[in-house]
Amino acid sequence: MPKPTKAQLALMQQLDAGHNIDVIASNLGKSVLAVRQQIARLRKRIEAGHIRPAPLPIEKAAGALRVYLAGFDVFRIDAVDHGAYLKDLSRKAGYVGMYPFDNEAPSNLGPADKAAWICRANIEAIRSADKVMANLNDFRKRVEPDSGTAFEVGFAAALGKPIRAYRSDARSLVKQIAETSDALSSLPMCALGYVVEDFGLSVNLMLANSARLVVGGPADCLREMKKFNNGGRPCFDDGVGEA
Question: What value does the mean pLDDT take over residues 186-208?
């Protein structure tokens, strides 16, 4: 089926926006009569099946894949603005971004009930998402991702959701954490005396094998996600692991 011409697309966009003929004529720099005639010709071509009308904004949104935006970004001072930024990046990549702040807890809830409400809301958002993008950078001075984000990645993996995650530090955990070696075994140890896993991964193996890790930020992650739009099953997909 032939695609609409630029002139036809411009007219359809004006009609989809709900403008009347006078406004359309002014916006397109044409006479009202010319616009009426163009609309009549366009309607006939659509009815005859010669061209397909451009989708409405709501149709585009309904057809776009939904990406849950997991991360400790909700604890930023500018959390709301940053969420809008992440959703805008998602939109430009062709996705509908789902940010935890999209749903606001009822104001009459106490702290414990509010926490439970947020937990349920985030879980339902992950269930309804097609994909998950997670911020696995270090959180609160620890060389570990946010525990809440780690839970969400695990939950999404259990549901079989394709997961992409981003991290700015590509070094292995040993290079990031190890401070000493055990005298007898020579195993790398952290400052608290625990063995540091040595698989050459930048995060815990459960996270590294549940998500495709991208070195960089959210824009880089969305670009990688776009390349592999069909995704694969976590832990069983050859594409899972360090990028």
Answer: 87
Number of C-alpha atoms within 13 angstroms, CB side, residue 178? 18
Q: What is the pLDDT of residues 70-127, one digit of tens each?
A: 999 999 999 999 999 999 999 999 899 999 998 888 889 999 999 999 999 999 999 9
Longest dimension (CA), the chain: 91
| CA distances from residue 61 to 66, 104, 138, 173, 223 in whole angstroms, order as listed | 9, 21, 33, 40, 19
Give the CATH fold of the 65-242 domain.
Rossmann fold (3.40.50)
- Residues 126/155, Cβ–Cβ less than 8 Å: yes
The CA dihedral of 197, 202, 206, 211, to the nearest 10 degrees, is -170
Indicate the domain borders of the chain.
Answer: 6-54, 65-242
User: The pTM is what?
Assistant: 0.70
Phi-psi region of 81 (alpha: psi -120 to 50; beta: other; left: phi over 0): alpha
